[in-house]
Amino acid sequence: MKLNEAACPELRVFADKCVDCGMCLKGCIMSDQLEEGPGKVVSHFLKNGVIEDDWPFRCSLCGYCSSVCPVGADLRSVMTALRKKACVKPSLKMKKLFFGVLVFQFMAAWKHMGTPPVFPKGKGNRLFFPGCALASSDPELVLMTWRELRSLDSDMGVMVGCCGTPAASLGRDDVAGRIRDGLAKTLRSCGVEEIVVACPNCLKALSSLPVKVSSIWGYLGGNASLSGSLHAELEEAMFHSPCPLRDDERELTEVERLAEAVCPSIRTDPYGSEGGLCCGAGGMVPIVHPEVLSSWSERISRYRRNGETVVCCCQSCVDSLGGGSSGVVHLLRLLLGGASPPPPTGLARWANRRKLRRAIFDDAK
Ligand code: SF4
Ligand code: SF4
């Protein structure tokens, strides 16, 4: 695509700031593909006025670069700006890729693949919002979690829906905005005042909704009865923190506290000086560049000690790191019991959503 500097001012700001120290590349899934430092690469783009359409879609939008940069250069916002630009007049190749993502987004937000707010007593003002990944990969865990939440608050409802992150990652803020507006309208019309989310992407994406958005970790962690009924105790484990919580210390502390209740010796900083690494599942990378996803999840496994379980608080991380059969488990599974199913592929994801929808309606009767 052609680059007009005035339309993407983030690029000039970045090129002027970056000193090409290479620190961001240590934890960047694009590092193998860059022959020069990011400052030089972006400067070339600006000089030539052209960039490969799919270049920004190799980035998982993990934010590692922006959080470690010593001079405050924000590479992630460069990627976001380029993605938005790529959506304006996409080439045929990109149109095909975008179509795949938008079909996925449509299905994820489609009412028949989720539920409206469902309350055990017909109405309530607080509900559990599990998010797409958990609903598609482990519907049984969604039900178990809802039941656990109901044991703490008998009025707690549930709603299976999408926060719009797939469209937003693509650069389609218009589509994501419509999804979130629809969600806000539904919640308002049902009198919902608080949603309890289980996905770190939902936690970030829905923070602008006109309701209180709480994370399940703080909600469960504040309850003493749960720690008395832990279903698993691990000898050796490492905690993989999800990218959306990278700068959210308060939230990470809540999750780590629960993880330590399951495994007192859990390593909560397994990557050491490398900082938090991305599982590769963000930013639609698995659709645009699936080969990057596997090489990055392999890299994470290199940090694993023999026999260690990997504990995640994001179902997308669980799936991209191989799921239960690879010794990767969701923290909710450890807290509530049962085995993680293998990551579903293709139609199985949507079949799981339909199964969950029926189970929720049955459970609420
Ligand atoms: S860490 Fe910052 S200054 Fe260093 S190469 Fe990355 S963006 Fe440039
Ligand atoms: S957001 Fe993550 S994947 Fe994208 S450039 Fe930064 S470190 Fe690399």
Automatic annotation (TrEMBL):
SUPFAM superfamilies: alpha-helical ferredoxin. GO terms for molecular function: 4 iron, 4 sulfur cluster binding; metal ion binding; oxidoreductase activity. The keyword Oxidoreductase applies. Residues 9-39, 49-73 form the 4Fe-4S ferredoxin-type domain. It comes from the Bacteria. Keywords: 4Fe-4S, Iron, Iron-sulfur, Metal-binding, Oxidoreductase. GO terms for cellular component: plasma membrane. InterPro entries: 4Fe4S_Fe-S-bd (IPR017896), 4Fe4S_Fe_S_CS (IPR017900), Cys_rich_dom (IPR004017), HdrC_iron-sulfur_subunit (IPR051460). This is 4Fe-4S ferredoxin iron-sulfur binding domain protein. The lineage of its organism: Bacteria, Thermotogati, Synergistota, Synergistia, Synergistales.
